[in-house]
Design brief:
This protein has two domains: 124 residues, Aspartate Aminotransferase, domain 1, CATH 3.90.1150; 213 residues, Aspartate Aminotransferase, domain 2 (3-Layer(aba) Sandwich). 35% of the residues lie in helices and 15% in strands. The chain is built from ten helices and 14 strands. A hairpin with a 4-residue loop joins β6 and β7. It is globular. The protein binds 4'-deoxy-4'-aminopyridoxal-5'-phosphate. 4'-deoxy-4'-aminopyridoxal-5'-phosphate binds next to α4.
Length: 378
């Protein structure tokens, strides 16, 4: 987006629509950068002189092998992933990782610690309970999932095999801006809705997973980053498709991989590098989120009750003080070119997702639209 600082909301959304685009604030699948889409479009009929599209290409052929080596190198570089970690590109979404993580790290007889800070933690817990004993270390229900329970209240099983947390709760908009202390136990993180949005300390984790459809491209691909020593006690008899060690041995090609999603992820990684890397993304994302939180906090129409210290940079949920205006808000937003703002079906209200591909000008345009909507009804 070429909009300058002086562009109004109307200018920015008009420019998007002139290109046949809208400003997509959806939580995932999420928007892609214009330049990434343009490259995909340009390469689609003939990938690098092969005479084939990426939709048809052989996954074991030299072109794709080159692409995935570059993608892994880019991810390792961007996240500063130490050598003792394997990087996997798998199918099955983050939901499959809800099962694979405890299956590989805890097994059936052990106990796993889980922090419950919202909808996705709860989903991870539900799946883990099918596999092993689960100790819910702290449950943010007492804060209506708008805060992270203080560490003094945590009740960890120190004999457990791991501690799992959801770094950013995509629906309730609660994010860890600090690293939980696992007391020496392997730390497992669901980074689906914040991977590459800011620097994280990979080496503090035994396992990190993230589905791709927010900051890393499109649905169908999940990135797993796992430290070798975390896989010492994978239970015998674990089906190979569920066993990280098998995927490591097969270089993420135990079966036909999601070729196109992997290709889009490679494009996104190159784009993030080109934008200045994860530190540049972080300052931009922090500024983007601040624009909306400042607006909401100063408004008497928009509300966000999440404790300030754990407000998400990626997903800003908000409610209208006057619920009767909800439909009018959504319609006015859509006709101004702002889409994907309805809250998750379990939460209602609204949510603006501000992943890496959302430009700052898009967020400022949304804020201007929201101010104008409020002004018109004051
Ligand atoms: N974890 C988090 C934090 C998410 O936001 C989502 C999807 N919105 C998931 C897990 C589930 O991902 P998937 O649909 O790829 O299984």
């Amino acid at each position: 987006m070429q909009a300058t600082k002086m562009a109004t909301a109307a200018d920015v959304s008009r420019a998007a629509r002139l290109r046949g685009r809208v400003l997509n604030f959806g939580a995932g699948p999420a928007m892609l950068p214009d330049s990434v889409l343009a490259e995909i479009q340009q390469e689609l009929p003939d990938y690098q002189g092969t005479g084939m599209s990426m939709l048809e290409i052989q996954h074991r052929g030299p072109e794709f092998q080159k692409l995935i080596r570059q993608a892994e190198a880019d991810l390792r570089g961007l996240m500063q992933i130490p050598d003792e970690y394997s990087v996997l590109f798998l199918h099955g979404g983050a939901n499959l990782q809800f099962a694979m993580a405890p299956l590989n790290l805890a097994g059936r007889n052990a106990c796993a610690n889980y922090l419950n800070t919202g909808y996705w933690s709860a989903r991870a817990i539900g799946e883990a309970q099918r596999i092993c004993k689960v100790q819910v270390v702290a449950d943010a229900e007492i804060y209506a999932y708008r805060n992270i329970p203080p560490v003094q209240q945590w009740q960890m099983d120190s004999n457990a095999a791991m501690l799992h947390y959801t770094v950013n709760e995509t629906i309730n908009g609660v994010e860890f801006h600090w690293l939980p202390d696992s007391g020496g136990l392997p730390l497992v993180a669901d980074m689906t809705s914040m991977i590459l949005s800011r620097p994280v300390e990979v080496s503090a984790h035994a396992l990190i997973y993230a589905a791709a459809q927010k900051n890393l491209g499109i649905a169908g691909l999940t990135v797993v980053i796992v430290r070798g020593d975390a896989l010492r006690d994978v239970p015998a008899g674990t089906p190979s498709m569920l066993d990280y060690r098998e995927h490591i041995r097969a270089h993420s090609m135990l079966n036909t991989p999601p070729v196109f999603a992997w290709y889009v992820a490679a494009k996104m990684l190159a784009w993030i590098k080109q934008q200045g890397g994860v530190a540049a993304m972080a300052s931009r994302n922090q500024r983007k989120a601040a624009v909306l939180y400042e607006l909401v906090d100063a408004s008497s129409l928009y509300q966000n009750a999440v404790e300030h210290s754990c407000r998400s940079w990626m997903n800003v949920p908000f409610q209208l003080a006057d619920r009767t205006l909800e439909q009018a808000f959504l319609e006015a937003a859509a006709s101004a070119g702002f889409v994907g703002l309805a809250g998750h079906r379990s939460a209602g209200g609204f949510r603006a997702s501000l992943y890496n591909a959302m430009p700052e000008s898009g967020v400022r345009a949304l804020a201007e639209f929201m101010r104008e909507f409020e002004r018109a009804r004051a």
